[in-house]
Specification:
The protein is of the alpha/beta class. It has twelve helices and ten strands. The structure holds zinc ion (ZN). Zinc ion binds next to loops.
Length: 321
């Protein structure tokens, strides 16, 4: 035993040797940076707890993406909030303008992912439409979600990322994209998404907090493993090109299992509450944000995450990736 420990100490004796022996490594190209655009604001608005992240106007997003590109970020996950919410028949003019103007400007220097969901569009803030008895109207929901996905593809989004967790949505989106000649447009499904306490800052930023009830009837119970894996399997069977688990740290045990069962790329979303927890701890002098980010990213990578979505992606270069 002592021998083995000594060996470990020897292998850790200098930085270059430690780097050489590291079993997980990755680069800036594995990161995805979320961007929040809101039609109703003219400037940048801070998001409580999310240091270095803002809700911004479309114009300001150009400068932000430009800065991020200079910091080595090439993948962006776009969340767009319109000025007006409604019950149905959603107006996507602003969404289309936002996506097409970003793509016109940055072309193929960036890979633009667009989050597809109803929660930032509906006046009740839920990811679905309801019947009169408050049960989920799945047919109408899938129809609307697929229409939204198609409009984002038409506007130039590189990747379609449905986050609603409705059964059948990946298949429904795949069908409409194929039919409308977007068969090469990849779908990254939020496939194992738990109902979580860690989404607070995001809901403020995307103005998508539900006005009644919660999302437990369509998001996953964090106590369940088999249900969580099945949800990803379903997305894979329905035609998802890549999968995602969220929140990041509370899902790390599932990444390899999902990879092995699906043979698809599985990424990890370090969600707003996780990031904010580290930012606020740093504010109180309890940790170093950059070091904590580095640690959590490496742990996700060690657990098998093939890409990482994080509010700190724009810091990754400064941190040393
Ligand atoms: Zn949603």
């Amino acid at each position: 035993m002592e021998k083995a420990e000594k060996k470990l100490h020897r292998l850790k004796s200098n930085q270059l040797l430690r780097d050489l022996c590291s079993e997980t490594s990755f680069s800036l190209s594995h990161f995805v940076q979320p961007i929040f655009i809101n039609e109703g604001i003219n400037d940048n608005e801070e998001i409580i707890g999310l240091k270095n992240n803002f809700v911004m106007s479309l114009d300001n997003s150009f400068k932000q993406i430009d800065d991020d590109l200079n910091n080595g970020v090439k993948n962006f996950l776009l969340f767009i909030s319109p000025k007006k919410k409604s019950v149905s028949s959603f107006n996507l003019d602003f969404h289309q303008r936002a996506i097409s103007s970003i793509k016109d400007r940055f072309m193929n220097d960036i890979n633009l992912w667009t989050d597809v969901c109803l929660c930032s569009l509906t006046d009740h803030g839920h990811c679905c439409l309801f019947n009169e008895d408050q049960s989920i109207d799945i047919d109408r929901t899938l129809k609307e979600i697929s229409k939204i996905a198609l409009s984002y593809a038409q506007a130039g989004s590189d990747i379609i990322a449905p986050s609603d967790m409705m059964d059948g949505r990946t298949l429904s989106i795949r069908k409409i994209l194929d039919k409308e000649e977007f068969s090469m447009k990849p779908i990254v499904s939020y496939s194992t998404k738990f109902s979580s306490n860690f989404y607070g800052p995001f809901r403020e930023a995307a103005s998508s907090a539900p006005s009644f009830g919660d999302r437990k009837q369509y998001q996953l119970d964090y106590r369940s493993e088999s249900e969580a894996i099945r949800a990803s399997l379903r997305c894979a069977e329905e035609g998802a090109d890549m999968l995602m688990v969220k929140p990041g740290m509370t899902s790390i045990d599932l990444i390899m299992k999902i990879r092995e069962k699906t043979n698809l790329m599985v990424g990890s979303y370090q969600v707003s509450g996780e990031y904010a927890g580290m930012c606020l701890s740093e504010e109180k002098g309890l940790l170093d944000l950059n070091e904590a980010l580095k640690e959590t990213w490496h742990v996700m990578r060690r657990a098998g995450a093939q890409y990482i979505i994080s509010y700190g992606a724009r810091l990754a270069k400064e941190i040393g990736f």
